[in-house]
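User: Can you fold this complex?
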Amino acid sequence: GQQVQQSPASLVLQEGENAELQCNFSSTATQLQWFYQSPGGSLVSLLSNPSGTKHTGRLTSTTVTKERRSSLHISSSQTTDSGTYLCAIDHYGSSGNKLIFGIGTLLSVKP
Amino acid sequence: AQTIHQWPVAEIKAVGSPLSLGCTIKGKSSPNLYWYWQATGGTLQQLFYSITVGQVESVVQLNLSASRPKDDQFILSTEKLLLSHSGFYLCAWRQSSYEQYFGPGTRLTVL
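Assistant: Here's the predicted assembly.
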């Protein structure tokens, strides 16, 4: 079935450094979303980017659909960026439409 | 603006006891609704989805059931909790093929 793999598993940065997170998926995705999950568990949608490049604030996502990969670049990291970053893709299967999530990248930004 | 509310915020329950978790969407008519579950340290998994009142499809069998009694309400329940039901439960909505938006979640501890 559809799989989503994220790397690195964890990342430790000093405040102000940039982060590059990777997401690879096993078949064509019609929708790809990046989420931030806080240490408390709540999920926030960061970017929806099924193809091309999108920017919002300090975040840039680039998705190359035919290579089945997406990246999330965080510039000038802040301590408040700490948390887990999840990549998810749409999957249309026998049980309908569902989002398949990766395990995430745990980001820790030190002051 | 759309808001999504989940209740309760957290629950501690005994094995074998019943459970009911709720989710309400305001400001959006006829949304697609979803229940997700995340074990501690695990991947988010979609459990159920519903595209209309009274219709719920199961994606993953976890000895749980879901119902959609009203357009803006989604309920997750079981008559007998298992230890393996512990984790974080998230409700989400989407309109057609657009992004999914998540509620704040319910943390369940089964003892």
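The domain at 3-110 of chain B is CATH 2.60.40.10 (Immunoglobulin-like). Chain B has a mean pLDDT of 92.
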